[in-house]
Amino acid sequence: MGYPMARNLIRAGHEVALWSHNSSKVQKLATEAGGKACGTPREVAAHAECIFLCVGTTEMARTVILGENGLIHGVRPGTVIADASTISPSVSRQIGAELKKRNVDFLDAPCTGSTPGAEGGTLTFMVGGDRTIFEKVKPLFEPMGKKLYYCGGPGLGLQAKLTQNLVLSNILMAFNEGMVLAVKGGVDPKLMLEVLDNSAAKSGLISYKAPFVLRRDFKTNFSAKWMHKDMGLMLESGQELDVPLPMTSLARQMFQMAISSGYADEDICSTIKVLEELAGVQVTEQSGTEDHKGKTGA
User: Fold this and answer.
1) Disulfide: which of 180, 202, 224, 265 matches 275 by Cβ 3.0-4.6 Å?
2) pLDDT averaged over consecutive 10-residue blocks of the chain (298 residues)?
3) Which string of DSSP letters, residue by residue, matches the chain?
């Protein structure tokens, strides 16, 4: 995600200092698109007025920002740090509080849109923090995203992102169950999708992901392991806020089954393979009513 986001900032004419855990990616982007390659987050901070980061986990974000060679050690007062990672809202607030002691402003700004959105500059950002600071740096978000939602104070961008992914992951599990049941019962999957698309069950997620499932294309846009991580954050937030999340708890176990079956790095739609294997069917373009012949009787 970070690579195309940084590239879009460079293409928009901004001077960008670059750092990644993978130094070869930094060198490649610096060579191909421009930008200044840096050896540490601290070095990035010394060259920047506004800093964006997008990393995989809460601990990664904490290390990049507050660690030994983190942004906090090179950042200047008045700088804005916007974290586009999906991490714990409570830890994000703690990070913001530490930065405030250095007169550094912090926004939680998780994004959605997966790899295609990052590459096309069409991400959706959900932003938490001081609204004045958000408005100040809003033009820097625009090369990376087309929908920018200010959600409220610190941590509320992350709260919105976790809610969005909670709904998405549970819809995906319902889709998996429904399509496996329909195919094993003898319904043509293409017909079933048409029915769904013209009913109250219509879903943008299903419309987008279903063709990938039918042609057995599980190349990653958003991997199963990262959604599993996000669902852990949802459950953690539910515990902190005293909100039971029974469906999400079970759905996360289905993602764990997919990971344990070797699908961790495949797209989230690969989770359907867990149910397919249990049921003994596959949801494909070739699946149809012929599979059901002879199954009815008196």
Assistant:
1) 180
2) 93 95 92 92 96 96 97 97 98 98 98 92 97 98 97 98 98 98 97 97 96 97 97 98 98 98 98 98 80 43
3) -HHHHHHHHHHTT---EE--SSHHHHHHHHHHT--EE-SSHHHHHHT-SEEEE--SSHHHHHHHHHSTTSGGGTPPTT-EEEE-S---HHHHHHHHHHHHTTT-EEEE--EESHHHHHHHT-EEEEEES-HHHHHHHHHHHTTTEEEEEEEESTTHHHHHHHHHHHHHHHHHHHHHHHHHHHHHHT--HHHHHHHHHTSTT--HHHHHHHHHHHTT----SSBHHHHHHHHHHHHHHHHHHT---HHHHHHHHHHHHHIIIIITTSBGGGGHHHHHHHHT----TT--GGGGTT----
